[in-house]
């Protein structure tokens, strides 16, 4: 099997919507500030009873249904998440059980907002090397659990959700290439700096961020990695039908698109309605653009993401 093809997609958003106006009652902020700085108007928030695996389960069921397969055909489950159900077992193992898949490899990938690209690249390698034929790749986050709801610098930016893609080995492309990068020296500019020791939380288990530094770093590395993906496939940016970026901030998205000469009508943007759902944002955007008919068979779709670590990456797909 030369390539991994996407045969099904799915997504899930919790029922509860938190608007910018709702946030005005929680912290000293305004709808106008949030919209103009980030493009975000609202985000979804998981119910207390909902864990990352529950969001992942709903998204996965949709992807499996769209792919028209029996879940027991899945040989690999990878969940990208920064907000797992528990320390262990992995959210992927919990998801595998909830789906009733039975024995297959299952593990989590932790690359924060680049997590879905990392997970997709990993599954692509499994399929290309013949190690498995059918893989479920999920991004699922309950970021609302690791936000300090008194910190306006961060709590207005994130939301909860999940997205899933089902991959199957095929002679036809498929994922054309994936590109992964990390620079651990930048770990402090975006982190949730806490751990568990002796049953107690050590440190601050909430997202902290140097917003401006993150912004500049993101714009720089996304442009680089997108050029890397295009060059490897001898393609120009004009060959790209859809750019699906990680949905952190509409200004980062627009800046990357502009540098590439890609007009915004070729960019799938969901940040206004979802906020930044970290590892879930790209598969959520993919599912929405597949289901509303924008993404069509044979088109070139370019995914790119950046996040804590720092990590960043891209994937170029012929749909
Ligand atoms: C966070 C971010 C939106 C801030 O936008 P910005 O244009 O850099 O904001 P500025 O630095 O010009 O303004 C900051 C001011 O707004 C204030 N501010 C911060 N959050 C605010 C909020 N929610 N509402 C109102 N004011 C806010 C700050 O306190 C600061 O005020 P001060 O100048 O009096 O100290 C922007 O830096 C960003 O998007 N960074 C990247 C974040 C990201 O995408 N992270 C995830 C990557 S995966």
UniProtKB/TrEMBL annotation:
Q: Which UniProt keywords apply?
A: Acyltransferase, Cytoplasm, Fatty acid biosynthesis, Fatty acid metabolism, Lipid biosynthesis, Lipid metabolism, Multifunctional enzyme, Transferase
Q: Which InterPro entries match?
A: ACP_syn_III_C (IPR013747), ACP_syn_III_N (IPR013751), FabH (IPR004655), Thiolase-like (IPR016039)
Which GO molecular function annotations are given, in alphabetical order?
3-oxoacyl-[acyl-carrier-protein] synthase activity; beta-ketoacyl-acyl-carrier-protein synthase III activity
**What reaction does this catalyse?**
malonyl-[ACP] + acetyl-CoA + H(+) = 3-oxobutanoyl-[ACP] + CO2 + CoA
What pathway is this protein a component of?
Lipid metabolism; fatty acid biosynthesis
Its subcellular locations are: Cytoplasm
Question: Among the record's GO biological process terms, what is one?
Answer: fatty acid biosynthetic process
Active site positions, chain numbering? 113, 246, 276
Q: Where is the Beta-ketoacyl-[acyl-carrier-protein] synthase III C-terminal domain?
A: 230-319
Supply one GO CC term from the record: cytoplasm
Q: Identify the Pfam families for this entry.
A: ACP_syn_III (PF08545), ACP_syn_III_C (PF08541)
Instruction: Show where the Beta-ketoacyl-[acyl-carrier-protein] synthase III N-terminal domain sits.
Output: 107-184
Segments traversing the membrane: none
- The protein's Enzyme Commission number: 2.3.1.180
- According to the record, the residues making up region (ACP-binding) are 247-251
Q: What does this protein do?
A: Catalyzes the condensation reaction of fatty acid synthesis by the addition to an acyl acceptor of two carbons from malonyl-ACP. Catalyzes the first condensation reaction which initiates fatty acid synthesis and may therefore play a role in governing the total rate of fatty acid production. Possesses both acetoacetyl-ACP synthase and acetyl transacylase activities. Its substrate specificity determines the biosynthesis of branched-chain and/or straight-chain of fatty acids.
Q: Which HAMAP family match?
A: FabH
Entry similarity comment: Belongs to the thiolase-like superfamily. FabH family.
User: What is recorded about the domains?
Assistant: The last Arg residue of the ACP-binding site is essential for the weak association between ACP/AcpP and FabH.
Quaternary structure annotation from Swiss-Prot or TrEMBL: Homodimer.
What is the protein name for this chain? Beta-ketoacyl-[acyl-carrier-protein] synthase III
Native organism: Nitrosospira multiformis
């Amino acid at each position: 099997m030369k390539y991994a093809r996407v045969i099904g997609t799915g997504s899930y958003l919790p029922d509860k919507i938190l608007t910018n106006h709702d946030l005005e009652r929680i912290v000293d902020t305004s709808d106008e500030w949030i919209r103009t700085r980030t493009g975000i108007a609202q985000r979804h928030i998981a119910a207390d009873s909902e864990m990352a695996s529950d969001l992942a389960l709903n998204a996965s069921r949709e992807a499996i249904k769209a792919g028209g397969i029996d879940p027991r055909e899945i040989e690999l489950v990878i969940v990208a998440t920064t907000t797992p159900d528990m320390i262990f077992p992995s959210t992927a193992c919990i998801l595998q059980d909830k789906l009733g898949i039975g024995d297959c490899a299952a593990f989590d990938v932790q690359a924060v907002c680049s997590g879905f690209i990392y997970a997709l690249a990993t599954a692509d390698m499994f399929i290309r090397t013949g190690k498995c034929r059918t893989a479920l790749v999920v991004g699922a986050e309950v970021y609302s659990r690791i936000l300090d709801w008194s910190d306006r610098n961060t709590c207005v930016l994130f939301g909860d959700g999940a997205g899933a893609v089902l991959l199957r080995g095929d002679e036809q492309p498929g994922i054309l290439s994936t590109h992964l990068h990390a620079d651990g020296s930048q770990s402090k500019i975006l982190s949730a700096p806490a751990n568990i020791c002796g049953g107690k939380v050590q440190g601050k288990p909430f997202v902290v961020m140097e917003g401006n530094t993150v912004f500049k770093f993101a714009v720089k590395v996304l442009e680089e990695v997108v050029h890397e993906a295009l060059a490897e496939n001898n393609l120009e940016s004009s060959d790209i039908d859809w750019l699906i970026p990680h949905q952190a901030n509409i200004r980062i998205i627009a800046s990357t698109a502009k540098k590439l000469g890609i007009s915004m009508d070729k960019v799938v943007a969901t940040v206004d309605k979802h906020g930044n759902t970290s590892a879930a944002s790209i598969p959520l955007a993919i599912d929405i653009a597949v289901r509303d008919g924008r993404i069509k068979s044979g088109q070139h779709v370019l995914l790119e993401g950046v996040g804590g670590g720092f990590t960043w990456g891209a994937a170029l797909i012929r749909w």
